[in-house]
């Protein structure tokens, strides 16, 4: 009986959030660093299934950086990152596409299928969704790394209107049809803005933005654009957190209702964020 009362309380607490987000688009960026094992992946997928069942329109944009590095290592290729972006020569591009559009993307589609959900796994190449140009980092060419110029939302609209959950791998095309490796945070931010998403949630392997990356007690629960830029300048926000924060800034400046960074290693962090007032992780505000 107590367990039943607890469940009822949870449902009553969730109801206003369910009503508020019904029919709204929520973009979930599922980072490779939060895909630690199959149990955790299944737990994230179940949360997204629940969101869909209560009437939200989830879109998943996934990463898989760690998996790419693992396979690079297996074929004796060197991995190099500059400002959180992978230096991508032709061979690296080939591996990145195989891992992202193949292995990672289809494993998520498969988990959705096992939960009885209709998901379609595509990359930014499909339907000419993610159009890019070469990205330069401080004027430096780092290979086939794409800077998103435009997101063509047509294919996403078709999928959402037919009740599918889109699962997107971050690969784009330039105007000549060359493939580019796109940082998954950039892809999620650009897709959320283009789709005018109500919410953009980054699932990663830290609690949120930390003032001291080695001390989990220094979580910043709310951060504005100027503070975030200051922390990047000071080197407190570093590595893979840099593209994530830059995307959060672009998203809050471009139509996205709410932007959050959450710990994807914690069971049900997504549900806690979307359907309760627990306020976990870091929220980005203008
Ligand atoms: N100030 C900071 N707060 C939290 N994490 C930070 C910070 N600065 C750097 N990081 C790093 O950013 C990482 C998250 O980025 P990344 O590894 O690219 O994750 P994902 O695969 O989810 O995109 C964290 O694991 C952490 O090591
Ligand atoms: C250009 C660039 O860096 N692309 C990323 C794409 C995958 C990604 O972003 O994965 P996570 O979200 O797991 O980090 C990469 O090659 O690692």
From TrEMBL:
Residues under site feature: Transition state stabilizer: 29, 244
Class of enzymatic activity (EC top level): transferase
Coiled-coil features, chain-numbered ranges: none
One of the GO BP terms on file: L-arginine biosynthetic process via ornithine
Main location: cytoplasm
Keywords noted in UniProt: Amino-acid biosynthesis, Arginine biosynthesis, ATP-binding, Cytoplasm, Kinase, Nucleotide-binding, Transferase
Subcellular compartments: Cytoplasm
Assigned EC number: 2.7.2.8
One Pfam assignment: AA_kinase
Protein name in the entry: Acetylglutamate kinase
Gene source species: Natranaerovirga pectinivora
